[in-house]
Every structure is written in structure tokens, then in C-alpha cells.
Amino acid sequence: MTCTELETALKTVTAEVYNLAAPAGLTEYIVWAVYGYTLVIGDDAVQVRIPRVQVDAYTQAADAADDGGFFDQVMGVLDGLGLVYTVEDTGYDPDAATMRLIIQTDVA
Fold this sequence. Notes:
By secondary structure, the protein is α+β, with helices and mostly antiparallel strands. It has a single domain (3-106), classed as 2-Layer Sandwich (STM4215-like), CATH 3.30.2000.10. 19% of the residues lie in helices and 47% in strands.
């Protein structure tokens, strides 16, 4: 899997999916970014470099964390891709004035 394939899959939840930053004024969107790499080393050299990706989902929907809500849909896409991920945080983001879900995963 590539980061482009991840972005395409996330666009099944919302068309508003961006790398690094989103434009101002949106009420429901996803931002993803590569923040490092997991390295697989063998024969004294890096054999595989796997991108570590953070996915941030933002929404003003009151039911964001409910079953079937925006956050559940985002996690469902990751589940469908077979990605292992961790939910780092969920809560209100005062800077964006939205609810925010932070997920970290390796895209391999």
C-alpha cells in the first residue's frame, strides 16, 4: 500500500482529504502526513522503509464518536485496508473549533 492509496481510501469517507494541512473554513475533513519511517534492516542495510503516518480527522458533527459517525467511518476504512493503527487522542481541538481524532499507523 502507498500513501496515495491511503488517501484515495479516506476519500470514501469525505472528499476533503489533504496532505499536511487543510484550507481554513472546513467543518469536516481529514489531514494525513508522514512523520517518520519504520526501517527493516537485513544484511547490514535497510531493506524496507515503511512510512509512519498520522491521520487527523476533524468534524463539528455532534455524533462524531458514535457508532457509524465520522470517526467510526474513518477507522472502518483503515480496518478495511487491513492496517494496524493506534488511536492517540480524541477530543475537542480549540484551534480548529472541531472534534479531532488522531490515529497513527504504518502504511506498508
